[in-house]
Specification:
2 domains, 0% strand, 240 residues
Length: 240
């Protein structure tokens, strides 16, 4: 991005789509990827990088969880079926595969429990939940419904948001609404770019009536980036 675009307060170009947020990787976690660090010694580093599930952040927790389990190569026990304990007369290869899966499943279950708040963890019976996939299933059933309430709150905030120039800049206001839309997308309620641009325009007060009128008279539908850039040019023209 050119320096003048940064000074203009333009939203970075994303090809007309909202940029997907990627969990920030801690430096000590990067060392796990680039170096042959033993799995058990790296487990604690990744646990520290995952936000603790507290009952209100299921989607955020799940996103970080999947990312770091992938780094540790423990996600395979969640993506596949649980292996039944083999009979005593099975081949050596089958027994080795089962023992390997059991080890990975045990580590994955520990990872899930370590990233869960104590009051939630204590309410899940260890006896009836002895595999990582079962633990994840219980968590999903219990907290995925809370996402609906969170999505409702975010949508209400997005629709009713109003720009207040005495509190924030236009760039900060646009970034705030873009962030709300990104959070809704993670909850399965994607806000398309033209709709987000319309929500932003609706959030502007009467001082921007001329800008409103200009938008309503043009045929093309603006993206958020186009809206921001046109608003900046309009402001510069008014200052001349």
């Amino acid at each position: 991005m050119a320096a003048e675009d940064v000074q203009a307060g333009a939203v970075p170009e994303t090809g007309g789509q909202q940029a997907e947020e990627v969990p920030e990787v801690e430096p000590n976690v990067l060392s796990i990827v680039h170096n042959a660090v033993p799995l058990q010694s790296s487990l604690n580093n990744c646990v520290q990088a995952v936000p603790q599930l507290d009952g209100t952040n299921y989607s955020e927790w799940k996103e970080h969880l999947e990312f770091y389990l992938g780094i540790l190569e423990l996600d395979q026990v969640l993506n596949g079926s649980a292996l039944a304990e083999p009979a005593s007369d099975v081949s050596k290869e089958v027994l080795e595969e089962y023992n390997r899966w059991k080890k990975f499943d045990s580590l994955c279950l520990k990872f899930l429990r370590l990233t869960t708040a104590p009051n939630i963890k204590s309410s899940i019976s260890e006896t009836g939940c002895n595999t990582a996939s079962k633990y994840m299933e219980i968590i999903k059933e219990r907290f995925q419904t809370t996402d609906k309430a969170v999505a409702g709150r975010l949508m209400f905030e997005l629709i009713t948001a109003k720009y207040n120039e005495s509190v924030t800049t236009m760039q900060q206001h646009v970034l705030h609404m873009t962030n709300l839309a990104a959070k809704l997308g993670k909850l399965g309620m994607k806000v398309e770019d033209p709709f987000l641009a319309q929500f932003i325009i609706n959030s502007l007060h009467d001082k921007f009536d001329t800008f409103h009128l200009h938008y309503n008279t043009v045929k093309e539908i603006w993206s958020v980036n186009e809206l921001t850039n046109k608003r900046f040019r309009s402001k510069k023209n008014q200052e001349r």
